[in-house]
Every structure is written in C-alpha cells, then in structure tokens.
Amino acid sequence: MPLANQVVVLDFETTGLSPDNGDRAIEIGAVKLVDGQIVDSFQELINPGKRVNSFIEQYTGISNNMLKHAPPSKEVMAQFAKFIDGFNLVAHNASFDKKFLDAEFSHNKLHYTGQFACSLLLSRRISQNAPNHQLGTLVSYHQLPNDGVFHRALADATMTSHLWLHQLDILQQQMPQHQITLDIINKISSLPKAQINRYYQTMAS
User: Does the keyword section mention Nuclease (predicted)?
Assistant: First the structure.
C-alpha cells in the first residue's frame, strides 16, 4: 500500500484559472518526501508562449521579462516527469494542480502513474476549527515553518509539505496502530465531516 509520507508535493503558478480557457503554467515547484523527510526539490519557470497580465505579475511576482528567458514547457515537463516517476502526488487544492499537470503533460505527450491526494480536502475533515482552509491560514493556524513567501511555486509546495506532514501526525495520533496510506487519506477526504470521528473509532477497534 502506498504510504502517505512518500510523495511529491507540487504547486503550479499559472496564467489563469483553467487550461480549458487556454491558460498555461508559468512556474512549477515541488518537494519530494521519503519517509516523511524532504530529500529533493524541483523548481522551474516556464515560458507559456504568451504574455501574462499585470494581475498575475503582481500576484506571483513573476514578470513577463522573467518568463521571456525561461525554458519552454516541453523541456520543463520532461524533467518533471523524471522527478515524479514512481511517486504519488499531493497538492493544496489538488484539482487545480492536477488540471494543469494533465494539460501540460498532454501538450507534450507525457504520462504519469501516481495518484493525487489533496491537503485542502483533508484539512476540511481533520482541521474543522481552522478559520478557513487556505494554505496561508493553515500554516499560521498550525504554526508551521514558512519563509513569508506566498504564490511562488517552490515556497508554496514547501509549505504544503509541512502542512501534509503535520496532517499525517494528526492522523497517526488518531490511528496509532495503522500506517497512514494514501488510501486512508483519500477515504477520509471523501467522508462527510460528521463521520470522521466514527471512522477513527472503527480504525482503532
């Protein structure tokens, strides 16, 4: 069973909200966790082949001039495919990042085999008292390490990895006799909030 502490945690910065509208990735950042330790990282800007608007420049701090000199998607995604080979994947609001990973891989005729898990969906189940479930809020709420940089891919991926490991600790305390697998994570993420404690009790019996 794939363990939840052996994953690649990734984050995209993009030109907009959906590849279905022609939006493209402009940066990818990722950290590799093995036995719950960060053992490697990946970060690249990506030339999207078009200008980004001023909102995205201000939101991310990634300028058109920076992107003009960045490598194309084909080059970056080929490297990233090797980086994630054999690993399952985690992202905060994973549906967003999965859409862009799928789109960029499709553009470049690449494939991956790992399944996704979502730290945002998990936080809604196991951190129900948090003010909200945005990454920055959860980092502050759980007093997790951060360097104060948000909306850059590697910084966000690193913060998400700290959140993920904290979430695994929470689950391990609830289910001390179980190894926390991705199947357990995805089961919890799909349960109604009111059923979480009952699930813990079932796993403890």
Answer: yes
- Residue 199: count other Cβ atoms within 10 Å of its Cβ: 16
Q: For residue 193, give the amino acid letter.
A: K
* The total number of residues written for the chain in this structure: 205
End-to-end alpha carbon distance in the chain: 20
The whole-angstrom separation of Cα 11 and Cα 169 is: 22
Angstrom distance (rounded) from CA 8 to CA 41: 9
Backbone angles phi, psi at 178, to 5 degrees: -115, 145
User: How far is residue 179's CA from residue 181's CA, in Å, rounded to a whole number?
Assistant: 6
* Residue 153 tokens, joined: 């891919």
Strand order across the beta sheet in which 37-45 lies: 37-45, 25-34, 7-14, 88-91, 116-118
CB of 161 closer than 8 Å to CB of 9: yes
What is the DSSP pairing of strand 116-118 with strand 88-91? parallel
d(CA 89, CA 100): 13
For 145, other C-beta atoms within 10 Å of its C-beta total 9
Token match 């054999």: residue? 86
Which residues fall within 8 angstroms of residue 102, CB to CB, at 6 or more apart? 19
Query: pTM of the entire structure?
Result: 0.96
Query: Is residue 53 classed as helix, strand or coil in its secondary structure?
Result: coil
Q: What is the pLDDT of residues 138-186, one digit of tens each?
A: 999 999 988 877 789 999 999 999 999 999 999 999 999 999 999 999 9
